[in-house]
Design brief:
The complex is a heterodimer. Chain A is an all-alpha fold. Chain A is 71% helix and 2% strand. In chain A, helix 5 runs antiparallel to helix 6. Chain B is mainly alpha-helical. In chain B, strand 1 and strand 2 form a beta hairpin. The chains are: A mainly alpha, B mainly alpha. Chains A and B meet through helix 6, helix 10, helix 12 and helix 14 of A and helix 6, helix 10, helix 12 and helix 14 of B.
Chain lengths: 330, 326
């Protein structure tokens, strides 16, 4: 027969290949909506300077969210983020004192390394002890908190951030673009490469969808679990190092403000909290959305009470638009 | 005989928590300078009952394979609201208590409604509603302060007949009036069924939606009872995010220590009560053993981690590796 449409078997469309789906589109739409709303309030909202500054602040959240996303893709969750952020900051600043001349160079890798170690421990607990990640990372958070209280003696540490930490967190070296943004871009590129182009990335989605099926297909699921938790810990600690550079010091509770926004950013970006579905473009959208929302609420001088209420309501409302699960009967 | 063995197997988690608590509390009392006086018992009970109530609240959503990360926030919100409206005469105070309980029920119902009808994941739903409830607490009480009806407060935080801590009586009454009827009701059983296998429960005609709604609503009520007790203890209200966070996290730990499965369908609020008691006694033990204050957070963290790691023993019973991946 003639006239058979040979084009019927097509690959995924361009939009799908780039990871643009409904949730990502809506998230970016909401970003535009917030910007337009902000522009009505004040012209400043559309100025490049304001936007760059938001992206710089958002970069810290973006790095934390990158790690959180890898864990959420597995269907797990990393609740140890708050104190791992603090751990990264404190270990990096303390390393300057411990390492002498070499410490100045070692501080950033050492901070990230400490975070990765906690992440590996989280991964071991989840993979080999088979404990629910929610409860195990929670316990790990408490342990890290205890270690940090012991380390600082209950007081604010006197260590200062180094030049290098200050440089990558605050300064702008190229075309006035903040260096922190480049760091986030590097992390993001790495995550996209990992998820799209490597067997490890495929395995992450496979484990998130059904771990037993992935295991039976020959995936070393425990290695995937440990790898993702280690990455999450390393990224949280890295964000802590940057934050220490940003505020020039490490302090207790500096990570508390990052757990909920990071998870919210990942979920608003369309990643399924049960795992197995999601792409990094959505996480970028989620991070920008959360950062802008926080910024606008503080610019409008909304009191903390109102900020919390609006913040919670917006997250619920957005998820009700596109994050709904399947009905029980289906 | 096999009935007894079945009962032991079924309640192994609860019994472990009870034994653990009994051992630790004995150790605590034997090292306490005053011994077991009504005053010591009342102080311990007043602190422990708060976490026990919040842990009971957490148990109900967990049984349906959900989670309520807003229990701590509802607890703090009830505390703040109670410090404003549970004042005046005894009658007005009682009216205020009823109002606080209704607000708690409403907060829980909103959680349940979003989970059931909005079909959002409980974790993310309650994270977000928790922010809302915390905002409301800040709105009601921007700074720490307030007052509470002192007659009711003294009655509920003192001793009954000069011996039994009144807080324990309150806890007992809550178990008797809320938990036991709930456990025996159709919707209570339905909650277990939903937690075990929601699809199967739905196919068998179990009222899935009602069961979930009731679980979250009751969780709100129980958390607000805890908030009221906090107000009676401190005579003030404070919108504190750290307190809310600590109670939420400890409630999950208490639920796990009490033998309830985080995967739903297995466990009881009684276990959570003893899980909460265990956690509280750990803190008291650190106090009597004069551990340097700087080491206490680390020690608590390690104990918490070890306690939740007890759940790893189930992997020794698994014969088929595939069962691990549930």
């Amino acid at each position: 027969m003639t006239g058979v449409d040979t084009g019927a078997v097509r690959g995924p469309t361009l939009a799908a290949r780039l990871g643009i789906d409904r949730s990502v589109t809506i998230a970016f739409g909401c970003i535009l909506l917030i910007l337009c709303g902000g522009a009505l309030y004040s012209r400043e909202f559309l100025s490049p300077e304001y936007l760059l500054q938001q992206l710089q602040v958002g970069a810290f959240l973006g790095i934390v969210a990158s790690g959180a996303m890898m864990v959420i893709l597995l269907g797990h969750i990393d609740l140890s983020i708050p104190w791992v952020v603090t751990l990264g900051a404190m270990m990096a600043t303390a390393m300057v004192g411990w390492g002498g001349p070499a410490g100045v160079w070692l501080c950033i890798p050492f901070g990230v390394f400490c975070g990765a170690v906690v992440g590996v421990l989280n991964g071991l607990g989840v993979a080999y002890l088979r404990l629910p990640s929610m409860i195990f990372t929670l316990g790990m958070n408490a342990v890290v908190q205890g270690l940090m209280v012991l380390h600082t003696g209950g007081f604010a540490p006197l260590d200062q951030a180094t030049e290098a930490m200050h440089f990558i967190a605050v300064q702008r070296s190229l075309f006035g673009i903040p260096n922190a943004l480049f760091v986030w871009a590097l992390v993001g590129a790495f995550v996209i490469y990992l998820l799209k182009r490597t067997a490890f990335g495929r395995a992450v989605y496979a484990v998130g969808n059904r771990e037993s099926a992935a295991y039976l297909s020959g995936v070393n699921t425990n290695r995937v679990l440990i790898g993702c938790f280690a990455f999450s810990g390393a990224m949280a600690a890295f964000a802590g190092v940057l934050l220490a550079g940003y505020s020039n010091k490490a302090y207790q509770n500096m990570g508390d403000a990052y757990l909920l926004p990071a998870i919210a950013a990942v979920v608003l970006g369309g990643t399924n909290i049960l795992g197995g579905k999601g792409n990094y473009l959505g996480t970028i959208a989620g991070v920008i959305l959360i950062t802008l929302l926080q910024s606008i609420l503080s610019v409008m001088q909304m009191p903390e009470a109102g900020r919390q209420v609006i913040y919670g309501c917006v997250i619920i409302a957005m998820l009700l638009i596109y994050g709904r699960g399947a009905k029980a009967r289906s | 005989m096999s009935n007894w063995r079945y009962w032991f197997a079924h309640n192994a988690g609860v019994l472990t928590a009870v034994v653990l608590f009994a051992a630790m509390f004995t150790l605590y009392i034997s090292n306490h300078s005053a011994g077991l006086t009504p005053a010591v018992a009342t102080t311990a009970a007043n602190k422990a009952v708060l976490l026990a109530l919040v842990a009971m609240a957490q148990t109900l959503p967990v049984l349906t394979r959900g989670l309520d990360l807003s229990v701590g926030m509802v607890f703090v919100m009830a505390n703040c609201i109670a410090s404003v409206i549970v004042v005046g005469t005894v009658g007005e105070g009682l009216l205020g208590i009823v109002a606080v309980l209704l607000i708690g029920a409403l907060a829980g119902f909103i959680n349940g409604a979003i989970v059931v009808w909005g079909r959002l994941q409980p974790i993310i739903t309650t994270l977000a509603t928790g922010a809302v409830y915390y905002g409301i607490s800040l709105f009601v009480r921007p700074g720490p302060g307030g007052d509470v009806q002192s007659d009711i407060a003294d009655l509920l935080t003192g001793q009954v007949f000069g011996v039994v801590p009144a807080a324990l009586v309150v806890l007992f009454v809550v178990v008797l009036v809320v938990w036991i009827p709930y456990r025996r009701s159709v919707l209570g059983r339905a909650a277990y069924a939903v937690g075990s296998n929601e699809q199967a429960a739905y196919m068998s005609g179990v009222p899935v939606q009602k069961a979930k709604l009731l679980a979250y609503t009751l969780a709100g009520v129980l958390a607000s009872i805890a908030g009221l007790m906090l107000t009676f203890n401190t005579y003030s209200g404070e919108a504190s995010a750290p307190i809310a966070g600590t109670y939420t996290l400890n409630s999950i730990a208490a639920v796990v220590i009490g033998g309830t499965s985080l995967f739903g369908g297995w466990g009881s609020a009684i276990g959570s009560i003893f899980g909460a008691f265990v956690l509280r006694t750990i803190e008291d033990l650190l106090f009597v053993f004069d551990l340097p204050p700087l080491w206490q957070p680390l020690f608590q963290g390690v104990v918490l981690l070890l306690a939740v790691s007890l759940g790893a023993f189930r992997i020794l019973r698994v014969r088929n590796r595939l069962e691990l991946f549930s």
